[in-house]
Specification:
This protein is of the alpha/beta class and 188 residues long. It has one domain: Rossmann fold (3-Layer(aba) Sandwich). Helix content is 41%, strand content 16%. Strand 5, helix 8 and strand 6 form a beta-alpha-beta unit. Helix 2 crosses helix 3 and helix 3 packs across helix 4. 35% of the residues are buried.
């Protein structure tokens, strides 16, 4: 990560970077559950920039609500990753296929929505991509980032089940509301 990127982060975001790095070193995932408005997208973007610039990762899948994709593009651009973004969210199937194949072959960051990922999870997980040299134990994606992760809070839904079918080395869930109370869940 560049010094400029590091300097523009707040102290709590730098602490978040350190925590994300500890997850990376332990080859595990986690939930980034800071309150809304504290810059979770920037934390993850800066973290990914450091990993890409260090050559530690090749491919990242970011799944977010459609309304947040422009925010992801903005933050990834700020940290110098604009050239690595592929948009897999449009309605043009040929364009989406091109972006997916580009991400598989060249690496980078593939941005998509929950619904498109649910419908196309077999394509996204690489069922029709055969380049064993690029895979780490069958895992094409180094990271799968799930923004607004409460979209998959019920593991029995087709959405959640299909997204967990996408193999990856690390999975990071992002949520401003990691614990949501309802009538079936006792309040904390």
């Amino acid at each position: 990560m560049t010094t400029l990127t590091f300097k523009m982060l707040y102290a709590h975001q730098r602490e978040g970077l350190s925590w994300l790095w500890s997850l990376h070193c332990r080859e595990t995932g986690g939930i980034l559950g800071d309150d809304m408005g504290l810059g979770k997208t920037m934390q993850v973007s800066a973290f990914l920039a450091g990993l890409f610039h260090s050559g530690l990762i090749q491919r990242v899948l970011v799944i977010a609500p459609k309304t947040l994709l422009t925010h992801w593009i903005k933050e990834l651009t700020v940290v110098g990753l604009r050239h690595m973004i592929s948009d897999y969210s449009g309605s043009n199937l040929d364009a989406r296929d091109f972006e997916l194949q580009h991400a598989f072959k060249e690496g980078g960051i593939l941005l998509t929505t929950y619904d498109i990922a649910r419908i196309n999870y077999r394509l996204i997980r690489g069922d029709f991509y055969n380049d064993a040299d690029d895979e780490e134990e069958g895992k094409i994606w180094n990271y799968v980032i799930l923004d607004e992760a409460h979209f998959i809070k019920n593991p029995k839904t087709r959405r959640a089940q299909s997204l967990f079918e996408i193999p990856c080395v690390h999975r990071i869930a992002i949520s401003g509301t990691p614990v949501q109370n309802n009538l079936k869940v006792p309040p904390s």
